[in-house]
Amino acid sequence: MAERICGICSDAHTTCYTQAIEDLLGIEAPPRAKYIRVIIAELERIHSHSLWLGIAAHEIGFDTLFMYLWRDRETVMDMLEFISGNRVHYAMNTIGGVRRDIPSEMTPKIKDGLDFLEKRIKYYIKTISSDRTIQKRTVDVGILKPKDAIELCAVGPTLRASGVKNDVRRDDPYAAYDEIPFNVVTHDGCDVFARIIVRCEEMLESINMIRYALDHMPAGMLRVRVPMAVEPNEAVSRVEAPRGELIHYARSNGTARPERYKVRSPTLANIPALCKMLMGQHVADIPIVLAGIDPCFACMDRLALIDVNTGRKKILDFNSLRENIRRMRGNCP
Amino acid sequence: MGEGKISIYRFMSAGCNGCDVQILECLVPRYRLEALGVEIVSTPEEANVLAITGGINVKGLKELKNAYERLRPPRIVIAVGNCAVTKGIFSDGYPMVGPPDQIVPVNLYIPGCPPRPQAIISAIAKILGIELEEREDYWYTPEGFRGKHEFDGEKCIGCGACAQICSSEAIEVHDKDGKRIIRVNYGRCTFCAFCQDECPTEAIRLTEEYHLSTVDREDAYVENEVKMLRCRVCGSYYAPQRQVDWAIKKVVEGADIRDELVGELRRAAEVCPDCRMKIDNIRRAKRILVQLSLRT
Known about the structure:
The complex is a heterodimer of chains A (333) and B (296). Chain A is mainly α and 333 residues long. Chain A has a single domain, classed as Cytochrome-c3 Hydrogenase, chain B (Orthogonal Bundle), CATH 1.10.645. Helices cover 50% and strands 10% of the residues of chain A. Chain A has helices at residues 10-25, 31-59, 63-84, 107-130, 132-138, 146-151, 156-160, 168-171, 192-215, 266-270, 274-277, 286-292, 318-329, and strands spanning 93-94, 97-98, 233-241, 244-252, 258-264, 305-306, 313-314. In chain A, α2 (31-59) packs antiparallel against α3. The relative contact order of chain A is 0.16. Chain B is an alpha/beta fold and 296 residues long. Chain B has 3 domains: 6-139, Rossmann fold (3-Layer(aba) Sandwich), CATH 3.40.50.12280; 149-227, 2-Layer Sandwich (Alpha-Beta Plaits), CATH 3.30.70.3270; 241-295, no CATH class. Helices cover 33% and strands 19% of the residues of chain B. Chain B contains 11 helices and 11 strands. Chain B has helices spanning 18-25, 58-70, 82-86, 117-128, 136-139, 161-165, 194-198, 241-255, 259-269, 273-276, 279-295, and strands at residues 6-12, 38-41, 49-53, 76-80, 108-110, 149-151, 171-176, 179-184, 204-206, 222-230, 237-240. The longest helix of chain B has 17 residues, at 279-295. Chain B starts with 5 loop residues before the first strand and ends with a helix. The interface between A and B is large, with 36 and 40 residues.
């Protein structure tokens, strides 16, 4: 179910969820499972970034690039399907480890795909940096100064494109990220162009990480046994999703069901930064600036009831929400 | 529909975006949806086909009706993905309203979580009546793909472990006329393959079949029947024959016991849970347990 929070970064959500629950249970995934989690997460990052790049190209009216990028993106989708059995919802993570192995017979095919992607992404970086149309549309558009970015709590590539070196994978390593060498890509451009370049270079970085992980994967179990009882406790888990830092919070009360579960997705953190980015921009640039943070609007749907006259906030519990919905629904099925 | 151009308007409701991206992916050079004369448009006025992805919640309800009203004829509606087919795993969510077909008429269902672009394209080609050229380089399915379910009627013991583990409540077990029917409603399934992992006899398997499109939502199921066993005492049906045999076999193998106790064990097992609680049956069961524990 955690997978269905998002159809693009589905693995980030399950990783975050399983980590939170593993934390509650006091267990840890075996090393091989951690490496497999990294491989899937990085493949997902490549697919999400290239999806975004295609959308960004579409937003500035460059549909050819959109088609090319999405064509090459099929390579990643094929790899994910080949490893996990589904294109979007991989169902790889489980509490206590992973469900499927990546046997050594798969390695050559994955590496072939990575070689192809590396060649293509390098070509795109060259194209994007030299194409005058893209330059005109993105350089000095949607400026977000490092100071503002930090103050407005931007996360992920949006923050890194403002020159701030911040990455959960490095700052608070989870899975096997502490054993795999990688660079945190930053760019000082602070504009949409910088966001494009950061994402492109992150894809190259991901390719190198997958190669390293495939070569250095330790042997061993895929999952550990999960204790049947959960102590009353609470846990927070952080994961660097393709769009930025993702936070899951879980509280247990000793029963089999969680008492409270909360997801803070990266878009919610990035939206306030738009206030600064959009200031003084042309109306025609709004789509690309908005798309520049890689938004997922469903991720930022939050409900707060504030009485305008008194300024008082109202908190709704589950039953009153249900009651409201019943009233809205009326006679419909 | 024959001639004329198809213009699809995507109505994305409360889904995870997975199916929506799959529809867009149909556009890429590899699948070439546009080569079939199909385009994706951004307003309902330009469209004559509505592709619904995601379950419908109260907020989307009005919008959906509105979008349908504004469609150009012949107003074809396709439900893409399991949330749009049956509400999927979100069916118990408090803001959800019935599956789209209770709000607008739906012509075609494409189950899947999410359906592959190939499945979407072949479904659209079916509407158009076009024969598709299935190029082998990308119409293949990889090994281990999680598609439509398949029962091995020989192996299934009817224990219902698959229904217990199923998180989307897609598998139902009901007993009728001396038969236990296990029904997988793949219009609700998330294709997580937990049922396959959990099955004690490897009887259920997710095959590589992914062309699941159907015109009737009720058709989206796979069934298996298992014979039930009558209670030796009261004569009512209480458990599948094969499950009892399987359990006895497990005990016999595990404890390595001999003939006379096997018969005793079978006589005790062929009694329904209610009758098992009767005094002389409890005594018999106790005797078997003592003998078993003496040997192991």
